[in-house]
Amino acid sequence: MRDSSQIMDIVLTSAKEEPDIRAVFQTGSRVNPNVKRDIYQDYDIIYCVKDPEIFINREDFLEKFGERIFTYFLGPEKEEVGGASFVWTLLLIDGVRIDLSFYPISKISSLIIENTLINLLMDKDNIIKELPISSDISYRIDRPTKNIFENKCREFFYYSLDIVPYLIRGDMVGSYKVYQHIISSLNIVLGWLIAEEKEYKINLGKNNRFILENIEENFKEAYLRLYQAVDRESYFVALLEALALFRKFGLTLAERLGYNYPKNLDVSMTRYIREAYQKKDQRRIY
Questions:
Q1: 266-282 pLDDT, tens per residue?
Q2: At residue 187, what are phi and psi to the nearest 5 degrees?
Q3: In which domain of life is the source organism classified (predicted)?
C-alpha cells in the first residue's frame, strides 16, 4: 500500500496538470487532529474547478491514481450535473481508497464556511486569504432542544412497539429493518448524553465509530449485546436490553438538561411489549 506522501504527490501533480482545477483541499479524518491515524483511513480530496461537468467522464484523470478494483459515482445523475458538485470513490488495487470531490470554484466560500475540518493544499489564484486551523467543530454534536429530545424519545418507543408484530410473525427481515431504527434512536440519545458530559466538544465520528470508547465502562457489555441479535429470541432479549439502556441514558440526559422524560410511556410500553411477545400469538397487538 502506498503511503500518504505518495498519494498526496499524485493529488497535487494531477491538479497542477489540469488548468480547470484552481484549488485543492483535503478533508475527513486524515486532517482531524483528534483522530488516530491508521492505514484504513481513506483520502478525502476536494478539487475546486471552473466547471465540475468537465470531469464527469474523465477516465484519464481517474487513471492517474492507479489501477482500480472499484469505482463509484456519487452525486446527481451524470446527465444532470450542470455545474453541481459530485464525488468519485476509488478503491485502488493496493488497498488505498480515495474520495475525489469536484466542487464549483464559484462556491468556494460556502465550502470553507460549512466545513471546518479542511486543509488547503493548493490555491493557484491566491483567492483564499486566510483559512482557520482545521478542527472538527462543524461535526460536533449540538445540544438538543426540548422538543427534539422528546420527539426522539417518542420515536424510540414507536419503533420498539413496531418491531413486536414482526417478531411474533417470525419475520426476521422486517424485524431487522425496524431494529435499525431502534438502535439509531438510542445512539442519538446516547450521543447527546456523551456530548453533554463533554460540554458539546466531541465528534463521535462517521457511523458513531467513537461511541463505544465514550460509554461508561459498566454499560459497555450491555451496549455491545444490542448488536448480537441473530434470531427471534435474541432480538427480543436485545429489545428489552435496549429499553433498559434507553431509560438510563434518557433519564440521565433529561435530568441534566431540565427536560421531561416520558417515564409513564416507558413503563407501560415495556410491560406491553413483554406481555405481547410472551403470548406469541398472531393477533393484532395495535
A1: 998 888 888 877 776 55
A2: -65, -35
A3: Bacteria
